Amino acid sequence: MWRGLRAALGWLSRLGGGGAPPAAMEPMERAVVRCVPSEPKLSLQLVLPDGSARYMQRDQAEPLGRALARIATNAAKGRAKAGKKSKKPRAEDGEAGEAELPEVRLFSRDGRAVSEEVPNAAAWQDGAVLQVGAARYRVERNPPALTELRLPRSLLAGFPVCPKVSAEFAAPQHCLFRWYRERLPQGGGEGPVWEEEREPEGGERVFTPSNALVGLRLKLRCTPGDGARRFGPPREVESSGPVEAGPGVCTFDARHLYTRKVCGRSSVRAVSYNILADTYAQTEFSRTVLYPYCAPYALEVDYRQNLLKKELAGYNADLICLQEVDKSVFTDSLAPALDAFGLEGLFKIKEKQHEGLATFYRRDKFSLLSQHDIAFSEALLSEALHAELRDKLGQYPVVRDKVLQRSSVLQVSVLQSETDPSRKLCVANTHLYWHPKGGNIRLIQIAIALSHIEHVACDLYPNIPVVFCGDFNSTPSSGTYGFINTGGIAEDHEDWASNGEEERCNMPLSHPFKLQSACGEPAYTNYVGGFYGCLDYIFIDKNALEVEQVIPLPSHEEVTTHQALPSVSHPSDHIALICDLKWK
């Protein structure tokens, strides 16, 4: 720990305070102060004149004098220990070997001594000077620092490598990145030699290895920055394995030809995609029954994430709504990767599950005004908004209990245009109950969803357009699709008895929106060995939005190249829907 602290402080000393050139100021050691208003204590790290590294925590409200006295005591102890180790008593230490307390003072940036009565939080300012005897230290308050730097375990040639970067007092977009390739030693040398990449993208956060790097490992050096010309100590990370050859042509390559650029300011490119949760792909049932035609390595999460990140990045979307997103995949893979491409991510986990929904929006097009996520079961039980539906379901306790047992959720985000604040969007995302005989359950879930969306888009933000994405597990002939599309469903619709007469629950439902499927009714959006059909949709408010273009789905030949989905060239059993929308 102390070795790392000394290295970091030494690096800060060489760099100079505030990012300025070292020659522009008097050379000093560094005293690093971390002070966060929400925490009761601040920390101070420095290397004392005797060479010992010190880490102190002090109450932020404590008078400065007490902290300075502790530094003086530590400096005296360090000096005494150094004297004992040298076995050469110094006359100034006295016969008892007691080290005299050095003078310790703190000076503000303008050179004035800081009163010892000032609280620590106000005293330790960036650029202040700490004097410990004859030694002087420049205070670095909250300098940029990396808390995590990690590379994906699987690296494929031609596929973007997006490191996970977590930082304090810094932002990834202000960090400096340097990529290195492994150069294997010649003549039996020890260990690899690293050579900096000189390709145009070599200095960016996202790096795409070429075929020439197959068989070689990568190294990343990241220097944290805060955008105000301050930089912290760099960290390095090496890949755990070498770059491997990619799968060749993927199902989404041709689609990327339509989405090479981000669409214009007056348009919105939306994507809806069930990405197949790892928690479902990695079961024995999935490998042997659901997807026996898929190579086992192509079901591995790291392999599929390589494909998925390239696919999503290449769509240059403004809105991305994903279903079946593992919590760890969102945190460790998708959020950092799409952040590097300018997208901010929001996550809603299902109750008692390891997967959920994710919504991403382009930061330079939208800002987030509010979130209104719900779990269907909880909303039905407790919200006054659904009291009428709750009363109707009271007549059908078996169906009601089934609805309450489901973990399905709804993600609702209100976004505001960065260029035209008068333009707002209500973006909804969901994944309805999956069972083929669960049509009645899906009708109840979508009724709850549309009532909640109505509350947000009509009551809280009157008359804002709705974009409703998701895996609705409903074909165009289903009651759920008809209900969304037409605004109502009759009490005698056959889907009310989708699981037999004993679970029939007749009730009329309606909603006020004029919604249409922006991508129409494709032959299928889900294609597996035993089933294919259209289950996914992007519904839009046709009074306020219109479709500019729909990105064509992969051809049937592309989908079935490896029999069905997922495959070595497609990461999910679903196909992404993509369309460009514009305000009317």
Question: Any overview of this molecule?
Answer:
Helix 7 runs parallel beside helix 8 (327-340) and helix 12 (439-460) packs parallel to helix 13. Helix content is 24%, strand content 28%. The chain is α+β, with helices and mostly antiparallel strands and 584 residues long. The protein starts with a helix and ends with a strand. It is globular, with a radius of gyration of 30 Å. Strands 17, 18, 19, 20, 21, 24 and 27 form a seven-stranded mixed β-sheet that branches.
Q: What share of residues are in beta strands?
A: 25-35%
The total count of strands amounts to: 29
Based on CA atoms alone, the radius of gyration comes out at 30 Å
Helix content: 10-25%
What structural class should be given to the helix and strand makeup?
alpha+beta
Biggest sheet layout: 7 strands, mixed
Overall 3D shape: globular
Family: Belongs to the CCR4/nocturin family.
Signal peptide: 1-18
Subcellular location: Mitochondrion matrix
Pfam families: Exo_endo_phos, PDE12-like_N
Condensed summary:
24% of the residues lie in helices and 28% in strands.
Observed structural traits:
single chain; 584 residues; alpha+beta; seven-stranded mixed β-sheet; six-stranded mixed β-sheet; 29 strands
